[in-house]
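Hello again, I could really use a second opinion on something today. I've been puzzling over a protein and I'd love to understand its fold better. I'm sending you its amino acid sequence along with the backbone structure tokens. It would help a lot if you went through both lines with me. I've dropped the whole record in just underneath, so have a look.
***
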Amino acid sequence: MNKGLENILTDTAKVSVHGGHSGQFCQHAKDDLESIIQAYIEQGFTWVGITEHIPPLSDKMRYPDEADAGLSAEFMQQRFVEYFRLGRDLQQKYANQIELLIAFEIETYLGTKDYVHGLIKQFQPDYLVGSLHHVNGFGIDYSKDDYQQALAESGSMTQLYCDYFDSQFAMMQEFCPAVVAHFDLIRAFDPDYLSTLTNPSVIEKIERNLDFIAENKLIIDFNLRGFDKGLEQYPSLSILKMAMAKGIALVPGDDSHGINSVGRNYDQGLMMLANLGASLEWQKPARIKY
């Protein structure tokens, strides 16, 4: 590694705007939350957003692994209370070693608007991560089968993308989350996503959503988890360049789901941003004022 690249890795603050999912509070994650926070400290992170998923609104909206484990929506809603209690305790316990922001990752599907507003009022998170994991009531990143159902409901791949970005826009208008997560997650099971992303109808939706993010000074989660799946990071390179041209802040999110994914792909992602000429002065999520 040449000296310039080495300096970038050592001189740039290590942060994660979206991470800290743990096996205590997420069925598809591993390890306990405190151990994950300790891993961030050991790796020298300056600040980290702990951004657990909100629990499902109803049993119908459980992920298959949650249903298979016999976890009811009511149980997970009660467990979320413990997530926030523990998160606040750990925030204080480790305050001298790392700045922890205790937040949550919202979901967007029929019925969640009032539900999410209620969670915000009840728990008063430091900030919100705005996500979409469902389109037309079907999951779009959990399995190919679910993705195909969402695709069938939309009628075409182009329309599926348009439906996704329309839902994302409505979510941003409603909640104006400080961080917009894995912006183009809709491409998770589209082998021809590079082509789909060039469709004029899709580009129009992307441009509109990026304009909203720029106007409201939101952050795009430079989500490193895609590298784990043999994909590009989220968002795709073409969208990254569009976001940079609009002056949008890109901030790394390791989207960790256990100790072994804390900081994973971080150096790879950091060098990519540096080579693109993106700012490495990380914008911190704007805290919600109560």
User: Anything to note?
Assistant: The CA atoms of residues 42 and 97 lie 10 Å apart. The mean pLDDT is 95. The domain at 15-276 is CATH 3.20.20.140 (TIM Barrel). The longest strand covers residues 99-106.
